[in-house]
Write a structure and sequence with these properties.
This protein is an alpha+beta fold and 956 residues long. Helix content is 43%, strand content 21%. It has 26 helices and 30 strands. Strands 1, 2, 3, 4, 11 and 12 form a six-stranded mixed sheet that branches. Strands 18-13-14-15-19-22 form a six-stranded mixed sheet. A five-stranded antiparallel sheet has the order 21-20-24-25-30, with no helix packed on it. Helix 4 packs across helix 5, helix 19 packs antiparallel against helix 21 and helix 19 packs across helix 22. The chain starts with a helix and ends in a 38-residue tail after the last helix. Its main location: endoplasmic reticulum. InterPro entries: ATPase_NBD (IPR043129), HSP70_C_sf (IPR029048), HSP70_peptide-bd_sf (IPR029047), Hsp_70_fam (IPR013126).
Length: 956
């Protein structure tokens, strides 16, 4: 008999659900990386551990974004900056903003001006930036340098989480365009990291603020916040709304917090770096004015690197103090620098920068359409907001009624917000939903030529906005080409950017993003041109702006609506069940916001909604075709014709030739070359780390060996020959280390350590034996004394009053006697031997004897505690039938007296106690005794008459 289909469906559904749960149980931790121009912060979320910042090797919560190469070694963070002070061209810094830039970009020109000691050359294939290392002539692209930092970030995260991590959410500046975002994803691919999402840094900070304040949001009126983020390189300001919105779940809708970015403003070159550079140049000019040396300090790269580092320290100190001395020893020509700088001098030096502080905030307000009065609070983020003058200008120029918000962690807000998003996107965690909608900073449009009807007239170019300024994303859009029936092409690029400065537009690089050629349009139309009941809806190109802010062309298709006779057969039960199951397991991408069409209509016409447009077209089409059917057959009623017709949508996929016009990162062989380069560098680092570990182990062993041999306990455990041999080996290895050892590989160092270990190990073992033996013998003696006490009590008690057999008692007595004899003999022999000879009485043999007596006692005590004494029954006296009543009473009295006497005698019997014996039972059993096992000892279970204890035995 076959299994019913509904049972198969139920079993399949349960299997899928259980599979999902299994994946969740075994999923890994995830991380977020907030990689900025100057600092990198890493946060992790692991099972059972809330969001936390991953510490680096120095146990610090942030790491400088710096990579240095020196003498074939690669260093990161603080170590790299240390190299950069002495060898500036060997330490690469502030390279994040060079992602996706061609060599002629204004940002690259500014970078060369700020850091003239770097050798920057063009990539021969892509005309992008390459750093040429002065020592090795190796070349590194910004993507490769970012990949190295991401790889180091994963190392910090894995050390903190204690498990492998391969998924991450990475924060990027909001002004990153398509080229920069694509380059960041490629850098993560080179590092072998799966990017769950790129998130704008201000959105991550706003999310971190919102997840702890959901109770202050409501359903009726949104709460508006401004986040002012001044970092090392740039300043970004965002206007964000928080509101509770009902979920679209039809079964159990619930209120979910919703974050929407309404407006964004930024200044690319307003940040701590510009202040630091001005301080550097100011200190250089002051030092030159002192005329301590004829050489110009600005012409010396090493001196300028020292001044740059001191300017960064001075900037931080002056944020909390009104004046401070800048000091550098041996700045140039062995001349020291000591210059007093006041906060007023710094503010005057950066006056034009402080005048720009309010500009990005004003741009954000303008983009959002709000006024400062509607903003709940201006929340500060980024280390640059610690500068007092920045805060003063914000209060003065913004004229907000509320004080500046300082409750957000300026350094870690973006990293923690991105970590929450990583946990939300990961399959291993379930977090409370917090919907985020970001905004399009640079509008995107589609440009195409109208189909040429008259070849003598030039084609008219048409532009259609695909994603407007501040349009929310993720979102899908559809553009429809109604009149093109031949193969054609169109371009996708940035739209009008009048809200940006001219120089900022140049920084974006290529304004054209993609060139798209459609092939097979004519063939697709020709398939249906001779068929009846056909209505073409045009060529539809489906675009999407995903969560990472990347524009994606999903597909292009010809949409045909075909009128056919309706099939009156009801949908089968099998089909219904199959559709129900498929709807149950829809992915999150299937419930994205409905596609919005962008039709080939005049620009001033409004963009219709997708749902309304579809329904109107269908209704009109049905009506037209039903009228045509009436003309052919007048005998059919209108209602009957409508019932027998239905519209079927047919989609013909159009072949797309997609060419990217912006700067693309390395592809194919070049990408694989970058991956191999990073892997080789990692192998070198691992070999270096292993070598350092082996070297430290060997050096430590030599020092500890010499120190221990000077101690009496260790010296007495070695013979004169052994001592001299060990010291000679230590001297031999030390001399070898000074000559060749520091350049040796880890395997050679390990072999030297093994040679030394073979000599010292016997001495160390003897020392251990002599130190541990007294305590172990004392414990064995205590166990023997307790066992003897227990044995004596059993011997003073009749066997009928105990659960033990004579064999068990004899076995215990024999074992005690044997161990006692063995101990006395072994101790006597050991005392005759010098400490420099291997002992005959070892800790291990003592432990074995101790274990055997403990096991025997544990067995006996377990049997005793589970034993229930038998209750003695009084003998029954049968009264003669001829006795009188007085004689019966006398017999009863005699019986009572006998019972009392028997009970008194039982009270006088001495019972063995368990206090002393149980105190000797320990858990350090190292071997099993061959004398007794639990299987050989029968367990006596009480009978029904024994279940009730006599009162005289209650103490047992």
């Amino acid at each position: 008999m076959g299994i019913p289909f509904w049972k198969c469906v139920t079993a399949l559904t349960m299997f899928l659900v259980l599979s999902l749960h299994i994946v969740n149980v075994h999923s890994l931790a995830v991380m977020s990386v907030d990689i900025g121009s100057e600092w990198m912060k890493v946060a992790i979320v692991s099972p059972g551990v809330p969001m936390e910042i991953a510490l680096n090797k120095e146990s610090k919560r942030k790491t400088p974004t710096a990579v240095a190469f020196r003498n074939g070694e690669r260093t990161f963070g603080e170590d790299a900056l240390t190299v950069g002070v002495r060898f500036p061209s060997n330490c690469f810094i502030y390279f994040l903003d060079l992602l996706g830039k061609k060599i002629d970009n204004p940002i690259v020109d500014l970078y060369k001006k700020r850091f003239p000691y770097f050798n920057i050359i063009p990539d021969p294939k892509r005309n992008t930036v390459l750093f040429k290392h002065s020592e090795s002539n190796d070349q590194f692209s910004p993507e490769e340098l970012v990949a190295m930092m991401l790889e180091k970030a994963r190392e910090f995260a894995q050390d903190s989480a204690g498990q492998a991590i391969n998924e991450a959410v990475i924060s990027v500046p909001g002004y990153f365009g398509q080229a920069e975002r694509t380059a960041m994803l490629k850098a993560a691919e080179i590092a072998g990291i799966k990017v769950l999402q790129l998130i704008n840094s201000y959105t991550a900070a706003a999310l971190n603020y919102g997840i702890f304040r959901t109770k202050s949001f409501n359903e009726t009126s949104p709460m508006y916040m401004m986040f002012y983020d001044m970092g090392a390189y740039s300043t970004q300001v965002s206007i964000v709304s928080y509101q509770l919105i009902k979920s679209k779940d039809r079964i159990a809708p619930e209120l979910q917090p919703h974050l929407a970015v309404l407006g964004v403003g930024y200044e690319r070159n307003l940040g701590g770096l510009e202040i630091q550079l001005r301080l550097r140049d100011y200190l250089a000019a002051k030092f030159n004015d002192l005329k301590l040396t004829p050489n110009d300090v600005t012409k010396n790269s090493r001196s300028m690197a020292k001044l740059f580092k001191e300017a960064g320290r001075l900037k931080n100190v002056l944020s909390a103090n009104t004046e401070h001395f800048a000091q550098i020893e041996g700045l140039i020509d062995e001349k020291d620098m000591r210059i007093k700088v006041t906060r007023e001098e710094l503010e005057e030096l950066c006056k034009d920068l402080f005048d720009k502080v309010v500009l990005p905030a004003q741009k954000a307000l303008e983009a959002s359409g709000l006024t400062i009065e509607l903003i709940e609070q201006v929340m500060l983020a980024g280390a640059g907001t610690r500068v007092p003058k920045v805060q003063d200008r914000l209060v003065k120029d913004l004229k907000s009624n509320q004080p500046l918000g300082r409750s957000l962690n300026t350094d870690e807000a973006a990293a923690l917000g991105a970590a929450y998003k990583a946990a939300d996107l990961s399959n291993g965690f379930k977090v409370k939903a917090f919907i985020t909608k970001d905004a399009t900073l640079f509008p995107i449009q589609v440009t195409f030529d109208k189909e040429v009807i008259d070849e003598n007239k030039p084609a008219k170019q048409v532009k259609r906005i695909l994603f407007g300024h501040m349009n929310p994303y993720p979102q899908r859009k559809i553009i429809t080409f109604n009149k093109h029936q031949q193969d054609f092409d169109f371009t996708v690029g940035y739209a009008e950017l009048s809200h940006l400065h001219e120089n900022e537009v140049k920084c974006l690089g290529s304004l054209q993003l993609s060139s798209i050629k459609l092939n097979g349009v004519r063939d697709a139309y020709s398939k249906y041109q001779d068929q009846e009941g056909i209505d073409t809806k045009g060529i539809k190109a489906h675009f999407a702006m995903d969560d990472s802010g990347l524009l994606i062309l999903q597909n292009v298709e010809l949409l045909i609506e075909k009128t056919v006779a309706a099939d009156t057969e009801e949908e089968s039960t099998l089909s219904k069940i199959g559709n129900t199951i498929s709807n149950l397991f829809k992915g999150p991408e299937e419930v994205l916001k409905e596609d919005k069409p962008v039709h080939e209509t005049p620009e001033e016409s409004p963009i219709p909604q997708a749902s309304n447009n579809t329904s109107n077209n269908t209704d009109t089409y049905d009506h037209t075709n039903s009228t045509e059917q009436l003309k052919l057959n007048d005998t059919v009623s209108i209602s009957e014709s409508k019932k027998n017709l239905k519209v079927v949508t047919v989609k013909e996929t159009i072949d797309v030739n997609h060419e990217y016009l912006f700067v693309l990162p390395a592809q194919d062989d070049d990408l694989q070359s970058s991956i191999n380069k990073i892997a080789e560098l990692k192998e070198i680092d691992l070999a270096k780390s292993r070598k350092e570990t082996s070297l430290n182990t060997l050096e430590t062993a030599i020092i500890e060996t010499r120190e221990k041999l000077e101690q009496p306990d260790y010296a007495s455990s070695a013979t004169d020959i052994e001592t001299q041999s060990i010291l000679d080996k230590c001297s031999e290895i030390s001399n070898w280390l000074e000559d060749d050892g520091f350049g040796a590989e880890a395997e050679v160092l390990d072999s030297k350590f093994d040679d030394l270990k073979k000599l010292v190990l016997p001495v160390w073992e003897r020392t251990f034996e002599h130190a541990e033996r007294p305590s172990r013998l004392e414990a064995l003696t205590s166990a023997l004394n307790s066992s003897n006490s227990f044995l004596n009590k059993i011997k003073n008690t009749t066997l009928d009053d105990t659960p033990f057999t004579q064999v068990e008692i004899d076995t215990l007595e024999k074992l005690i006697s044997e161990i006692t004899t063995w101990k006395e003999k072994q101790v006597e022999e050991q005392e005759k031997l010098p400490k420099s000879v291997d002992p005959v009485l070892t800790v291990q043999t003592i432990a074995i004897k101790h274990s055997s007596i403990e096991r025997e006692m544990r067995y006996l005590m377990t049997k005793f505690t589970s034993w229930k004494p038998k209750k003695k029954e009084d003998p029954k006296v049968k009264a003669p039938t001829s006795q009188t009543d007085n004689e019966k009473d006398k017999i009863l009295e005699e019986d009572n007296d006998t019972t009392v006497k028997n009970n008194a005698q039982e009270d006088e019997v001495e019972k063995p106690t368990v206090d002393e014996a149980s105190s000797t039972v320990e858990d350090n059993v190292e071997s099993e005794s061959p004398l007794k096992t639990d299987n050989t000892k029968p367990i006596v279970e009480p009978t029904k008459t024994e279940e009730k204890k006599d009162d005289t035995h209650s103490e047992l």
